[in-house]
Amino acid sequence: MFLDTFVLLAADAPSQGFLAALNKRLNLGDILVTLIFFMILMFLLKKFAWGPLMGIMDQRAELIANEISAAEQSRSESHKLLEEQRNLLKEARENAQSIVENARNQGEAQRAELMATARAEVNRMKESATIEIATEKDKAVAAVREEFVSLSILAASKVLGKEISEEDNRALIEETITKAGEGR
Prior knowledge:
It comes from Filibacter tadaridae. This protein has 184 residues and is mostly helical.
């Protein structure tokens, strides 16, 4: 539409003058006043609205940048804490494993000690039983000799028909038993 106005004015220009025709058709005074008010409005907006608005936008951008930086720092710290926790967990597992291994080794050592003590006790009891058996055997042999001597004296006195002293008889029988024991 604006271009159409220029074309119509150019056609009317030879008769009236181009500017006069343009002024009549467009009303240049209104356009000039509108431009001046627009410029004043732009100046006022720049001074009172645009500056504070840009300041707020800069503060907002700075706030966002600070929050991003804080988030990065927080993420970095949480990553460090996670690594520390993993290391502590690993150390705790290693400690637990060493404690279990120590307990196992102590158990094995105690078992070996108990086995050695039991074997020593069995050997002592075996030796004690062997000594006791030998003692009882000697006692039994002595009792059998006594019984044999008594029976021999009784048999000899019946055979001989007379009584000889018990001491002589005993000496004679013990000598016979000793000779019989050596012959075996």
